[in-house]
């Protein structure tokens, strides 16, 4: 059995902070290598709208972050969480286990069907990482990420840096099989991923 047959690559964890280039790498994995894509932030947003979860969230957050209809306003929530880190911690303690439960179900299903899945997150945990065959860590300077946030979301520079500094992702870099410099062109990033797969 050759080396390429021994190395599993069905489940890839794509790890990086906000504006680190995760969407670019996911589009390459999907378009060039036929991976299904799963974004943890989208899973979290879906959970926020489930009635049972929303009831628990309302116990943690002030009425000001909800609309008149009782739905969660994500723009108000983002502002609140950056000014009140303790609330952010409690909300993450509620939501993150539920998100990772859903991710584990998806991974199990993908393995049964012998498909391929790339899972994007800025907030991995060790249990999730242990379920991945490969981990890609996306690297870009804070200045580049700040510029991307200002251009894509219209944020002020100070707010952009606050968001970046609120995420502690670098500690996962040493666990990655591939570190990708996303300050390079999309063609260079694609070539780097392609060359990595060819080496497996």
Automatic annotation (TrEMBL):
**SUPFAM superfamilies, A to Z:** P-loop containing nucleoside triphosphate hydrolases
Question: What would be one Pfam family of this protein?
Answer: CoaE
Q: Name the EC number(s).
A: 2.7.1.24
GO MF annotation terms? ATP binding; dephospho-CoA kinase activity
Q: Does the keyword Cytoplasm apply?
A: yes
Query: Any keyword Lipid metabolism?
Result: no
Pathway recorded for this protein: Cofactor biosynthesis; coenzyme A biosynthesis; CoA from (R)-pantothenate: step 5/5
Positions binding ATP in this chain are: 19-24
What CDD domains does its record include? Answer: DPCK
Q: Which PROSITE patterns does this chain map to?
A: DPCK
Q: Where in the cell is it found?
A: Cytoplasm
InterPro entries from the UniProt entry: Depp_CoAkinase, P-loop_NTPase
Q: What keywords are assigned to this protein?
A: ATP-binding, Coenzyme A biosynthesis, Cytoplasm, Kinase, Nucleotide-binding, Transferase
Tell me one GO biological process term. Answer: coenzyme A biosynthetic process
| Enzyme category, top tier | transferase
Q: What does this protein do?
A: Catalyzes the phosphorylation of the 3'-hydroxyl group of dephosphocoenzyme A to form coenzyme A.
- Family to which the UniProt record says this protein belongs: Belongs to the CoaE family.
Annotated protein name in UniProt: Dephospho-CoA kinase
Gene name of the encoded protein: coaE
């Amino acid at each position: 059995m050759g080396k390429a047959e021994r190395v599993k690559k069905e489940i890839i964890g794509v790890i990086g902070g906000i504006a680190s280039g995760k969407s670019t790498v996911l589009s390459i994995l999907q378009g060039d290598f036929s991976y299904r894509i799963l974004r943890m932030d989208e899973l979290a947003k879906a959970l926020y709208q489930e009635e049972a979860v929303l009831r628990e969230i309302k116990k943690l957050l002030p009425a000001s972050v909800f609309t008149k209809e009782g739905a969660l306003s994500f723009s108000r929530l983002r502002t609140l969480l950056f000014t009140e880190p303790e609330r952010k911690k409690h909300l993450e303690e509620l939501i993150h286990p539920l998100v990772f439960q859903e991710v584990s179900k998806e991974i199990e299903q993908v393995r049964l069907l012998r498909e391929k899945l790339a899972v994007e997150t800025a907030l991995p945990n060790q249990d999730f990482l242990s379920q991945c065959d490969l981990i890609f860590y996306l690297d870009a300077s804070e200045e580049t990420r700040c510029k991307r946030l200002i251009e894509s979301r219209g944020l002020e520079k100070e707010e952009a840096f606050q968001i970046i500094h609120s995420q502690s992702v670098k500690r996962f870099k040493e666990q990655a099989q591939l570190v990708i410099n996303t300050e390079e062109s999309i063609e260079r990033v694609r070539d780097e991923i392609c060359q990595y797969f060819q080496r497996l």
